[in-house]
């Protein structure tokens, strides 16, 4: 019985986090009541999991970090050419959707190399870029932290373009990846 209860609690908790991600991405000023409605739970239930907005935002911070790390693992940044690994990472991050909106709107922030505003790269990202220098797929005149900034700038541009121009996600992703890879490639 305990596993069923904890499984049910985990599903409810995840439903609330998923709803909060979607609701806050579209309306940063949304209420907890808006989140409860989107999650299909009552306000009392929501408050059993998250006492107030600050607690929910803290949980979203953790959730965003978890999803970014999972995307990074799926991207297999230690494999293939550096540019191909950056391209895969861009695609995996793009697919995070509303999590990116929360990051770009500074509703959640992250520590370390995944943060769009980070001052330096984590060692794995830097190793990926250095591998790109060595295999000729990334211009060695581009510092790793610049490559990271270009990645996040392209992701922002893609999601903005998607919202403003109402193009398909597929087309926005194609533009992001094309621009990203071509901006990193050595010339001549």
What do these coordinates show?
- It is built from nine helices and no strands.
- With 188 residues, the protein is mainly α.
- Helix 5 packs across helix 7 and helix 5 (82-94) packs parallel to helix 8.
- 30% of the residues are buried.
CATH second-level architecture of the largest domain: Orthogonal Bundle
**Would you identify the CATH H-level superfamily of the largest domain?**
Tetracycline Repressor, domain 2
Number of strands: 0
Q: What percentage of residues falls in helices of 4 or more residues?
A: over 70%
Indicate how many domains the architecture comprises: 2
Q: What class would the helix/strand composition place it in?
A: mainly alpha
Keywords: DNA-binding, Transcription, Transcription regulation
InterPro entries: Homeodomain-like_sf, HTH-type_TetR-like_transc_reg, HTH_TetR
Protein name: Putative TetR-family transcriptional regulator
Pfam families: TetR_N
